[in-house]
Amino acid sequence: MTSITVEPCTIALFGALGDLALRKLFPALYQLDRAGLLHAETRILALARETGEPSSHLSAIDEHLRRHVPAREIDEVAMQRFMARVDYLTMDFLQAEDYAALADKLGRVERLIAYFATPASVYGAICAGLAQTGLTDVTRVVLEKPIGHDLASSRKVNDAVALHFPENRIYRIDHYLGKETVQNLIALRFANSLFETQWNQHHISHVEITVAEQVGIEGRWGYFDEAGQLRDMIQNHLLQLLCLIAMDPPSDLSADSIRDEKVKVLKALAPITVEQLGQQVVRGQYIAGSILGKTVPGYLEEDNANAQSDTETFVALRAEIRNWRWSGVPFYLRTGKRMPQKLSQIVIHFKEPPHYIFAPEQRPIISNRLIIRLQPDEGISLQVMTKDQGLDKGMQLRSRPLQLSFSDTYRSSRIPDAYERLVLEVMKGNQNLFVRKDEIEYAWRWCDQLIAGWQRQGDSPKPYAAGSWGPVASIALITRDGRSWYGDL
Ligand code: BG6
Which residue ranges does the record assign to the Glucose-6-phosphate dehydrogenase NAD-binding domain (predicted)? Predict the structure, then answer.
C-alpha cells in the first residue's frame, strides 16, 4: 500500500460508455483502487445517454474492465470494491433538464471531478449544466483532447468552459504527459547537472522525436479523417515532447513555472512558410502493405472509408526553435500509423568532438547519443564511444550504451498507465501534467499555418506502404541535412 494520501471525491464521468472510458479510464480508476489510491468514500458516477437498466450498463463496465486489465492484475476483492463505487445515470448532456437529475443523484459533494470523455463540442453545454447544479465551486473539470480543430475552434471551446470555471480548476489532458518516461525527462534534465551544461546548440547537433504506431485507424475512421495525423498527434503529443526537451529549467516544479517555460518554446517555433513546406514537411497516407507478415488494407480501404480522402496518416517535419539555446539545431519530428513497430522515442544527437584524432574511416560512427525510449521497453540509454577490447584492436572505436531499462531496474513494480497518473494528479489538485490554455493555442497557431500552407498548395499526401517507415520523402527530409533517422531498419 502507498504513502500518498488522497481525499475523497466524486468522479462524474461524462461519456462513460465510450471507447476512451471503457478502454482507459475505468481500468485506470480500478488500478488506483487496487493500489490503495482511492479514498474509501470516493464514488464514481458513470454518465451516458444510453437508456435501460443501470445494472446492465454496470455489467458492461465490469465486463470491459476484465477485458482491458491484464488477467494477473485482476484482484477479485479490489474488483468488487471498485464496482461497488460505480453508479450509472442516463443523461443527455445537451438537455438542461437532465442536470437536475444529476444534481439529485450527486447530492451534497465536497469535491467533484467532472471528466469529459465526450467530443469537445459538448463541453460548453456540460459546463453550463454543471453551473445549474450549484456545484461549480467544488468542481475540477477534466477535458480530453482534441480541443478544437484549429486555433479559432479551440478558443471557442476554452471560452465556453472558462465562462464557468477558472483556469486553475481546468485540467486539459495530453496523456503523453502522464507516461512514466515523459515524467522522467524532467528528472533527467533538471536533476542531473551533467546534461544541463550540454543541453544547447554548442553541444547538440539535432534532435529526433519519433512516435510510430503499428495500428491503423481501428474503427475510428470518421473521427480520424476529420483530424489527420498533424492535428491528432503533432499538435499535442509531439509538440509537448518537444517542449519538455527544449524548455529552459523552470524556477520550481509548480504547474505555472513549467507551463511558462513550455509556452516560451512554442512561441519560439519558427513558422514554416509555404515556400519551405516542400522541403520541411512531408505528409503521407498509408496504402496496403504488410505488418508482421500479415497483409493489411490501405487507409482508403478501411471500413467506412471515403475513397477520395486526402487526410494524412503520417507527418515528418523539420522544426527550428528561434532562441539562443537552440539556434541552428533542427528538431526532426515524425509520427505515423501503420509503421513497422510501435515505438516512441527521442534521440538527442551530440556534436562530434571539436578536434578529431582517430582513424578517418571511424569518423562516421563518432557521436554520443542520448536515447529516451518512451514505449515500449521504457528506458534511457546513453551511447558512448569506447575502445574495442583486445591487443589486436589498436584504437578501434565502438559505440556502446550506458543503459537504464526501467523494467530491469524497478523489477518489482509495474509501469502505471498514463491515465492512472493523470487521474491521481487531478484528485490531488496538481496541474503540472496538464496543458494550459495558452499552450494549446500556441500549438494550434503553429499547426494552423502548416495546414493553411498545404491547402494553398493543394498538397496531397504521399503514399507509403503499411509496414514501412513512411514516404521516401521523409527520408530525404533528413538526409538532405546529411543525417538519417536513428535505428530505422
Ligand atoms: C491518441 C490519438 O491521442 O494517442 C490516437 O488520438 C493514438 O490516434 C494515441 O493512437 C496513441 O497513444 P499511445 O499512448 O498508444 O501512444
Answer: 13-184
Question: Of all protein residues, whose CA lies closest to atom 4 belonging to ligand 1?
Answer: 233
Sign of torsion over alpha carbons 484, 485, 487, 489:
negative
Catalytic residue among 206, 237, 349, 355: 237
Q: Tell me, yes or no, whether 92 and 189 share the same domain.
A: no
Q: Rounded to two decimals, what is the model's pTM?
A: 0.95
CA of 432 to the centre of ligand 1 (A): 21
Does 337 fall in a domain? yes
User: Which candidate, 398, 396, 401, 399, places its Cα nearest to that of 358?
Assistant: 396
Ligand 1, atom 5: closest residue by C-alpha: 232
Domain extent at residue 277: 177-418+437-479
* DSSP per-residue letters across 99-113: HHHHHHHH-S-S-EE
Enter the C-alpha cell of residue 91.
443523461
pLDDT band at 95 (very low <50, low <70, confident <90, very high): very high
Same domain, 77 and 224: no
Q: How far is CA 16 from the centre of its chain?
A: 21
Quick check: is 237 catalytic?
yes
- Asked if residue 174 has its Cβ within 6 Å of ligand 1, the reply is no
